[in-house]
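Budget justification note: compute hours in this period were largely spent on complex prediction jobs such as the one shown. Inputs:
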Amino acid sequence: MFPVYDGLYLSLMLVPAVFGVVVGAVPSKHAKAASASLCGWSALMGALAYPLFLYGGTVSYTFPVPSAWGPYSVLMDDLSSMIVSISSVVFLAVLSHMMRSASAPRNGKYASLACTLFIACVLAMCADTVMLLLMAWETVTLATFLMSLRGKNGTAAWKFFVIAHVGGLMVICSFLAMASYADGQTLSSWSDLSTVMGVPASCGVIVLLFVGFGTKLGLIPFHVWMPDLYSSAPTHTSALMSTVSSNVAVLVLFKSVFGYVGVSDEMYVLAVILMAASSFTAIWGALESLVQTEPKRILAYSSMENMALVLLCFSLGMLFSDGGSPGLITMVLVAGLFHALNHSVFKSLMMLTVGSAEDCTGETAMERMGGLAKLMPAFSIVSLVAVLSMAAVPPFNGFASEWLMVQSLMGGEGIHMTEIILPLGVAVVGISGMMAAVSYARLYGFMFLGRPRSERRVSKMIGASSLAPMVLLALLCFAMGIFATDIMGRLAGGIGASTTIPSDDSYMAHLAGTLNVPMLAGILLVSVFAVSGLSRVFRKKSTRSPTWDCGTPLTEEMQYSSVGFSQPLVRVFHPLYGDVMELSDDESSKDCKRYSIRFAEPFAERLYVPLSNLVMKGAKYVGRTQNGNIQSYFGYILIVLVTLLVAVRFI
Amino acid sequence: MDVVISGNLIDLCVVAMLLLSMLAMTTTRIAQLLNAFAVQSLFLAFLAFVVADSTGRSELYVLGAITLAVKVAGIPWAMKNTAVRLHAGREVDSTMGIPGSLLISAALIIVAYLVTEPLMATVDTITRNCLAMSMSVILIGLFMMVTRRKAMTEAVGLLMMENGLFLGIMSISYGMPLVVEIGIFFDVLMVAVIIGIFALRISRAFDTIDTSVLRRLKE
Amino acid sequence: MTCVILSLSQAALMIALSPLFAGILRKTKARMQHRVGSSVFQPYRDVAKLFRKSETVSKDASWLFRFIPYVCFGSMVLLSLMTPFVLADVAAPYGDLISMVYIFTLYRFMMVLGGLEGGSVFGGMGSSREMMMSVLIEPSLLLSLMALSGLTGGSTVMSDIPPALIGMGVIVLAPALVLAASSFFITLLAENARVPFDNPSTHLELTMVHEGMLIEYSGRGLGLMELSSMMRIMIFASMIGALFFPWGIALTSSPADLAVGVASMLLKVLMIMLAIAAIESYLAKYRLFRLPNLLTASFALSLLAMISLYIL
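Corresponding output:
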């Protein structure tokens, strides 16, 4: 495109959101609506990024801001514009759901923070200079932190704040390390720095990047903030956090590892270690999501599992770089990026589902919901789409990316050391995917099916304005499944453009002949509708009667409970859960006892508690020096000064 | 015999031996355990015959025959008799669940593969593929001795390790000189006899053949 | 065009024969237990009767409940179009092993949701147990298929596998194939609720898994579910026959080859059904928490298949 149009497009996208930040801060009744609609406009423009890229090519622009750190410029290439588009659609849907949702904060500040988050995410995804990238990334963290503060959830939010900043520090360190080796000022001029840096330094940088972005994605053991924050923050914050800001992390991580640093042959040990870490995270996330009783916590753990699968794909990409064909590397990276995109669509849909269900019932525990499908059929259809995509069932989008993952694991033979690793990888993808499917079946079954599980009736039905954004996302789930092969090809092109991995169409051509989602969907739909149509023509009498009850009328409580549902798996995986059965007195009556299961939190108990004890102990030692006597402070200054002078003289 | 067919037969025998080792990890009865050992030895003998046939080494026929006599018939029969005389030893109790021990066995196979991978390239016998499998049989046998409590089952673990060793020697160099092999057989037989007597003694002294009670000797 | 017709008629044959093989299975089992047993055509009569009956639906069930039987049946129709049964290269452009695994997931997922629909305790229990088993089955199913695809050159397209295996000659004895097939057979028993895992012939007992999920269905819905589950075991059996031991399958669409293909496939499926009947007669159903042992064994077998593929 011409520079003038680039600037015009970017200002059309970003300026309304900047106004939105300001407008939201005005203390007025309409501040929220005004700010959110400005942000909605921005998101709409953001959604046009990829069509515009196809039409006019790369968008690049340098902000006319004087700076001591070099120019602030953005570059929207193939991959960035695609991810910006999809993230913007998700953002738009979440925003328009937020406008009418009862549970969303009513003040304008929340909308103003959403505008900030949008600007920061877009800038982080297409930043072309280090300073802009780091500033935008920090702003993403800060905005999500402020958006998640609500009422008394201080601990969860602060936990997130601390862990995310440890991660942010690592990201900063890694980028500064890269910058010290690189020549050019812009990120797009960095490529394959590992040839300059040498293997040990680049391995160090890759570890820092993985851990730094992993804190946001829930890599073990940095995941402890996730479930608490997701369950206590406003729904829309969690929705944006688990989708849009995860997309930012995945994209920047991908570009840094495979584009800027570049993967060389000698890194397979590191790749295996990263694979092990992400496999462990995936299985742990899936296991924990099976036993949660709050829908939002289930979604938190499932985000962890999905993002771990993405990281698994990236580490496989590193592994395959040691002797694998370029087509194979591209394929596994496509699987990772595609899964991240799909996750952002179906997870935001599921988050909105949970939010709407909470709005309608006023309940947050799965144990007290139920029977929503009968009351709100349209709502239940839309949510079923989300659940089916999350469970990786054809013909929806989750299926396409998991299929590609398994396919690339099966195709990667004959590479150094992979004979043993790949079958284990397939087993990890299989078992964690299936466990995730179980937890979604449980989530859907206990929220929507059966009888209502508490006396409290549904207070209000879901409105069309809340349903519309969800329908949009559900259609996107379906479309991304049907056009999976096309999207994979585009992602492969994007990967070829932003990394030095040579493009190789052989695998993509092979895929086109193997995965045929439209065909599968077509046969499935035709046979389902043909049979149901036939059955409608030859209709038989159908009567309604109570569920078969063995002679005792069934009450709300006489259903399978969600805790009982996951019990067989808890018993099978008992050594991993470390669950403890506890017997306590019941409050309601003296004669009754109450059994409850407590699940151990090994990471909190074994890692964070000792760590915080250590820090407190250290703080006590430091505290002794702070005696309040002004003379001793002068003494400290003297000591520091003398040490510094001596150090400067001799080093 | 056709080279492809004999190669396939060798592979099948080796895999069957490994499978029987894993099966032995899952059984809960001494009789079944001894049967597994006997069948494993049967496959070993058959393997020796196949290798003898395709390489023309006649001493392997002798070794196969001794294996048949000692390990397929003799030792299992004797140990079953001991088990019957001990009464208590029908149920095997393991310190680890079946899924856990199966998964650890699978991990041991992977370790065996990783360890023997460079070695396999240097050997050029038709049985060199068996090296990793034989190492796995040895490791699983040792693992069985780690997890099982009864002296009888520990003995079976040891015997299975010995099967693995025999397989390994055969895969590297088609077996050792006949005299050495016969010496080893004699050793194995002695081990079986000694453990049988030992188990009887333990059972008389402690009323059980659970070796974990031997810890009491320390006190 | 001929390919489309052949593919459709193959699927039609599979659907039409599945109740017959279910009947043969029941009859053999009855004979092995010294009973006379019902006719081998009884399943046809059962399904026809269910289709004629009127339906009773639980008051608590939603729209999904009526929809589930159609989805389950539709996914089985899709699979019978995908699987090579008589002719090898029938569903070349979309018959893929990994997609197949996920279509089975669709079937199971829907059935589990159906179990939770009525809010009855039986349904919930069946669903819960089914989900436990499916978590443990999934890795061994994927690994045994991975071993199969690795053995035949890395392609996951189903129609590539029979020609590749046949082209390899006397590989019948290849350990990887035998191990993968035995792991797949255990998966077959688990997926189809056969004896060590579940008892298909009991109703209203605390042991039941599959039947528990179907308890609220009646009339046409039940008929479709029953037919789908007969088709499912037929598809599994013909996959063992066509993918793991493909000798006899028609590689070209000449009439002679097709005739041999039909005959050999019927023979193979018959043998597998007889094996299942024998297992059901000689084994008792396992306690629920002993099932992980068997499924771990299946996983170990398939992992061993993978490893032996590389070692040997």
